[in-house]
Design goal:
Blueprint (H helix, E strand, L loop, with lengths): L3 E4 L14 E4 L2 E4 L16 H18 L7 E8 L5 H11 L6 E6 L9 E8 L6
Parallel strand pairs: 4-5
Antiparallel strand pairs: 1-2, 2-3, 3-6, 4-6
Helix pairs in contact: 1-2
Length: 131
Amino acid sequence: MTKREVIHTDKAPAAVGPYSQAIRVGQWVFTAGQIGINPTTGRLAEGLVAQTRQTLQNLEAVLVAAGTNLRHVVKTTIYMVDLSEFRTVNAIYGEVFDENPPARSTVQVAALPLGALVEIEAIAVLPNNEE
């Protein structure tokens, strides 16, 4: 059986349900969806721009705790409550994933936890020792 390791960091918001921030299996890291909660205050950032930036910071914190980082993300899924705001999220996302961006899906959903406007989850690989 493949070893499965639960990842947790205080640098990202605690799970709001019965799930882990991320799971590491072999060389793979699978994150839970991150929303724009400030891990220090426990409050959702105000507005789509601030939530998107905080969401990506939270995602990065979880990946770092798992032993990888945003450069090693191979796939993301973005959930938005209003797809007409795609350009705004896409511009911020492009600032973070500016070189060799991962594969991605973006979908509109009816609602997100805690009234969030955007949620992002990722699949990443662990860096090899040659990097």
